[in-house]
User: What shape does this take?
Amino acid sequence: MSEESADSTLTDGFHLVVDALKLNGIDTLYGVAGIPVTDLARLAQSEGLRYFGFRHEQSAGFAAAAAGFLTQVPGVCLTVSAPGFLNGMVALANATTNCFPMILMSGSSNRAIVDLEQGDYEELDQMNAAKPFAKAAYRVNRPEDIGIGIARAIHAAVSGRPGGVYLDLTAAALSATLDAETGRKSLLKVVDPAPRQIPAPEAITRAIDLLGNAKRPLIILGKGAAYAQADQDIRRFVESTGIPFLPMSMAKGLLPDNHPQSAATARSFAIGQADIVMLIGARLNWLLSNGRAPLWDEGAQLVQVDISPIEIDSNRPIAAPVVGDIKSAMAAFLAVLKPGQIRPSAAWLEALAQHKQKNIQRMAAQLSADPHPMNFSSALRVVRDVLADKRDVHIVNEGANTLDFARNIIDMHEPRRRLDSGTWGVMGIGMGYAIATAIVSGKPVVAIEGDSAFGFSGREIETICRYKLPIVILVFNNNGIYRGDKPGTTPPSPTGFIPNARYDRLIEAFGGVGYHAEDTPNLTKALEAALAAGHPALINCVIDPTAGTESGHIQSLNPKRALRS
Ligand SMILES: Cc1ncc(C[n+]2csc(CCOP(=O)(O)OP(=O)(O)O)c2C)c(N)n1
Ligand SMILES: [Mg+2]
Assistant: This one.
């Protein structure tokens, strides 16, 4: 119990929130202060929680979600009512979509006035507004319910399939006083908030039997597999079966990208030709063409390991569902797997090797070119080479072409070192994810950002400088969304920006170091120097404005008008 109340026989809602968070091992808040939570943020900080103040709630929310993904402890974002709450909602919905555990905790206005729409300051029925976008949404109306409210939010965020939870804290509940002993008794420490979900033994046998019949098996690792922190068992299963694997972008590094069994450089061939595909924590959403032709062979049979039973058969029939948490599932597989029981055919491995070789050669030619101005490949080759011996570095990545090229070119060697736009392909995660990653990991972060993508959260460079975080932001500046306009285009096209902007100068306003790189030698120098210094830095990386493709690699999703005017 905190000690600053004048009357030690009393406590209040503010103290109970802080005490409940501490009791449950939540030691960090990401937020924006204001009515009615300013004192909550201040109290949390004075009581030993780390408080990171942002410039916009969306970035604070993205930070909380990233922290949740990296630690399996829900990240908590604190906001003011109505507009602050709504600013955090994209992050909350994104957390739910990506299955990241986070809690958006917002103060709210006077319920009696809000419910009669009588016009309170920042009036909004926040709990009901949050519901469609959250895994769960709760409201605490009385101080004695704060302990239960926080416990429910933690359980909902991390149990089963993780997601975003909204917790509404009314100003009345925060400021109300309560007998200290009653308050203390109202708090609870959650027990086993993410209980293991052990798959049925027959599900494991069915899956192993199916894989045992495969000639051309393939494993696809999703970010659920990365979240599960079952790294050793996943690697053991992949290596002991010899099955080729493909990582989704945030599963890169679960096994190193240069692992001989990686089929990443023959992705379409591997998916198209496989006869049995095992999905581990990967959903058959648009990122995998919903499991449909032409990418997929409609005759292929699937094993799906997922914590959510309703994920099964979501897009195509699953022959061998394995419902359980991935850590328990992988342990169960290893416990019954017999040596030699699953064995990809030599012809399959040979065909994959040939395709890989061909694609690697094609990519090598692109990567070795050194055009002026730089294109995506040449700039990313520099990033790859500089990072090659810096395995500590975490990557955050968003944009269109900047995302697509970086995902393919930058190899990852360790799990959970890469965070990106994810399931929604959302722009704006950049600075929030980078800040949380730096805080949680204590390691350097390189944020590889399209110039448009950067704009969505660029205001947080002040936050990065204020907390002196070891974040290097690379702005891939091609003067626009996908591409830049031809010089002199008026009015500017819907995708064009001011040409040749100097993003590096922005960070200097806050004491960070800016670099401007127009060619590969200078980019190498700038990135080496920025990482060696370990200070906030921004490198304005000049990219040929004609180098990008509209919509990057997902042009097929971009509808075009049928008639030209
Ligand atoms: C929140 C949000 N708004 C808009 C979009 C649409 N969008 C997709 S990629 C992108 C930006 C691409 O440009 P940039 O980041 O500069 O990458 P480039 O292709 O130029 O490398 C935008 C605006 C989105 N994905 N998310
Ligand atoms: Mg761009």
About this structure: The first helix runs from residue 13 to 23. Residues 118 and 341 are 69 Å apart (CA to CA).
